[in-house]
Amino acid sequence: MKIAVVAPSSRFSEEAAARVEAIAAERFAGVEIVFHPQCFFRHNHFAGTDEARAHALVTVANDPGFDAVWFARGGYGAGRIAEAAIAALGPAARDKAYLGYSDAGFLLAGLYRAGFPDVAHGPMPQDALRDGGEAAVERALAWLTRRDPASLEGGLEPGERHAAFNIAVLGAIVGTPLEPDLAGHVLLLEDVSEYAYRTDRALGHLTAQRGIRAVAGLRLGRVSDVPPNDPDFGESEEEIARFWCARAGIEWLGRADIGHDAANKVVPFGSL
Amino acid sequence: MKIAVVAPSSRFSEEAAARVEAIAAERFAGVEIVFHPQCFFRHNHFAGTDEARAHALVTVANDPGFDAVWFARGGYGAGRIAEAAIAALGPAARDKAYLGYSDAGFLLAGLYRAGFPDVAHGPMPQDALRDGGEAAVERALAWLTRRDPASLEGGLEPGERHAAFNIAVLGAIVGTPLEPDLAGHVLLLEDVSEYAYRTDRALGHLTAQRGIRAVAGLRLGRVSDVPPNDPDFGESEEEIARFWCARAGIEWLGRADIGHDAANKVVPFGSL
């Protein structure tokens, strides 16, 4: 079992990589995690130039020697390379799993749209640096190596299709060539570090999209590190989500166990 | 000449209203500015509930006694009421001018889409509180009362069609029932208080939309109060806009004299 890590978005760190390697060595015998050198590149905001990030992703994805591609972290940058990188993927790329969340959602979206069968929203190597982040890394590795059902978000139902995204990231995907067909899917959403008025605006935008109105329903994960709204917004994130679901005719299906935190569970795209 | 002011977004203030009234009394004899009482309502983040804001807008727009509707300020909230309010507008509403920018862009978009002939992006009463804001208010009133060509953005060309928006606001409009047909238009964009990575993400999203790819070209206004990116983003707002225009095949037409500041010029939607 060989897992490649690449960093399509923001700069990654040797420290996070070392923690992930230590966890894998201690608890996942026989699993080899290969951090592509690009993970430690730096170009302004990004883990290397667009060309370097795309090249690393395409190289490991097309390499039949790897069983999975694990996105190192979010931040920002995957959307700049996703379309071109996915267009360069061959048959070997379809035989592996892809795991990430947050800004990696640009890639999850494009890969799922392109028919890749094994795409999932879940913890990334960078989560090793969170308080309690070891559990997140173990959860991700348990899913990547043996599809451990304990890694899955608890409300996923066999026979239903699912997708999960960060709200701001999905807002930047809709209407672009990366937008997947989510008709009939249960859509799980989470967000972090957004003012309440922005979450309201983003959900208004999303729930007005024709493609999003076709989902089977919406579940809201954690919305964390919300800066104080001045004046107070007066509605919780759940009230905001219910408001827009009701207006859009989207079924409100309750909360979800995903978020920008160590408890973030795995959501495979499509059916279980 | 009678101008109605309503506040479809965030809370407005008596102080700004008083300054606008003083400017009008001193320099615009015969112009009556009527601040609808709703301007001073408060409901959480907003200048009154959705119902109150929509009702005030519909009332003054449908009142043949007013020549113009001037949006008091931006912030956030117009997108929650725009679709329903515009659907409630009758023939008298088409005979008047509408002026605003920032969050008021939700209304400019929907009104222009609905075929309203006299919709413009430009200063609002709240700008009276800016340093040098008196000039912005005068510029707006000169346009509202006598279509003063000196109020116009300097690069507008007769025979061309134009539209202007805040980047984040237009990003929340595309794909919704408020999105106007901007094919063949010169699109002027500005933004404020966004991290460089967010402007990059927002322009990536916008320039990937089918509707936006149909514009005649893009001009970039001021992008101000940009919080420091950590690490430095390494590209100016102009480099970011040029990057996405080049990738999307949208013609880059240079800078524009609009922005969240006292120098913000008027951009009538459509042809001059």
From TrEMBL, chains A, B:
Pfam families: Peptidase_S66, Peptidase_S66C
InterPro entries with a match to the protein in the record: Carboxypeptidase_A_C_sf, Class_I_gatase-like, LdcA_N, Peptidase_S66_N, Peptidase_S66C, S66_fam
Presence of the UniProt keyword Aminoacyl-tRNA synthetase in the record: no
Single GO molecular function: serine-type peptidase activity
Residues covered by the LD-carboxypeptidase N-terminal domain: 3-121
Record keywords: Carboxypeptidase, Hydrolase, Protease, Serine protease
GO biological process: proteolysis
Domain (LD-carboxypeptidase C-terminal) ranges: 166-270
Family: Belongs to the peptidase S66 family.
Entry protein name: LD-carboxypeptidase
Species in which this protein is naturally found: Allosphingosinicella ginsenosidimutans
